[in-house]
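Aim 2, interim progress. The first record below pairs a target sequence with its structure tokens.
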Amino acid sequence: MKTSIVAIKLLFVMTVLTGVLYPLSMTGISQLIFPGKANGSMVYRNGVLIGSELIGQKFESKAYFWARPSAIGYNPLPSSGSNLGPTSMKLKVLVEERRKLLIQTMSVSESQELPVEMLFASASGLDPHISPEAAFMQSERIVAARKFNELQKKELLQLIITLTEAPQFFFLGQPRINVFKLNLSLDTIR
């Protein structure tokens, strides 16, 4: 009986410490040190929430950069991939449809190798990044859709270079570009 009482007391103390005090202190410290990130890196324009830098969004207009495909339609609540494996016929059909769409809308040939992230969905379905190669591949479509002149085209290409993020800690991953940030910056080119 004595052991049970000690166990219940320990359970109560640990629940308060790890379930209440620790989360509250971490939330408070995060709000003080980096409030934007602690609140989900939300982006507001004219006081209206337009998205988060951390969650991929669907851009269908030819005048914007497209993010990588999402198996969940960019809905952050389920956050998952398709779980289709390399032998899946459904995956092969999806990839071929995406390939045809890219060839039709971009200045690429049938034989040109396309960036993998433009053909396959991410594991979370919410990845906000593409490779610089995928961004450069889409640039001609955007130039045509927005009727950019040569100076504006140079601005667009410089924007891709400027917004390219290095691998994390300079060695983890590949260079990448946040599509949401890129599209927001794209609207500043006049």
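The second target in this work package is listed in the same format:
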Amino acid sequence: MRLSSGGFTLLELVVVIAVIGILVAAVTPSVVQRIMDGRIEETRAEAQALYDGMVGKPAESQFGFVGDLGRLPTSFAELAQRGSLPVYTTSTTRGIGMGWRGPYVNIGTTANDYLTDAFGRAYAGAASGQVRSAGPDGIAGNADDIVYPPAAPATGGTVTATVKTITGGKTIVDPAGYRVDLFYANGGLETSLADAAAPFSFSNVPMGVHAIRVVKTVNPQAGSIVAQDTIVVRPSSTTAAELWF
């Protein structure tokens, strides 16, 4: 039986529909997997970009948000929106700059693209320094999560200082009567630590470019600055400064 004088038979149509169904069934999983793989790779790339915005590339003396503000962001929104954070300015101590000078990320086609992964879900983990996506299944804390970096990063280091002076042709190391001050960003504002007794050491110093100086603590001329320098602090490392006067 024919549907029309020039058309297909019912059997021919059934065969064509069956073949199309088989092809769709065979191709669809592959297409879906390609789309999923593309979203996973896009999310990984975004996660790394967010991480770089937070901590920069310390080996290249680029310290991102942490280097300017002295802390990790409380949310990823702080990487692109200054909000109430102090604007970037140059401090009076050695001309070191600090404060927000973003945006630290440039992802996506709209202002909020950086806040969500390729699955349309919000990233988490800003305060820990790790960028976390719940992955394809949308359930956080299981095997398909996308996390960068794999372990929470260190964002601070240690500074040690040695004070040296030449008296009577001899080098005197860490003479009495002097204090070492270290200046760094705390929430984008300049703050300082002081150590009045050798060996001079400062721990948990945020990574970045900082100022350090030696101040006389005894008369005459108590309070006078006798030496100062600029230092670079990298995460999980010790910066040794020698300050001569």
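The chain has two helices and twelve strands. This observation will shape the mutagenesis plan for the next reporting period.
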